[in-house]
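Protein modeling request. Please complete all fields; requests missing the sequence field cannot be processed.
Requester role: graduate student
Desired output: 3D structure, token encoding
Chains: 1
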Amino acid sequence: MFGFSDYTEYRRNEQDLDRRTEQNRVARERKDTARRQAAERRAAERNDERTGMGR
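Delivered output (55 residues):
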């Protein structure tokens, strides 16, 4: 089946692909969260500078 010698090997490969896909999704979500938080911090800092609250 698809170049695999048996169903067990096929399932093991499928599970490995699923695991890597999930790890990539989690890593992507973490990066997105970090990027969003950094943007919010920069916006807050700009707002503080504009209103004089940063001093």
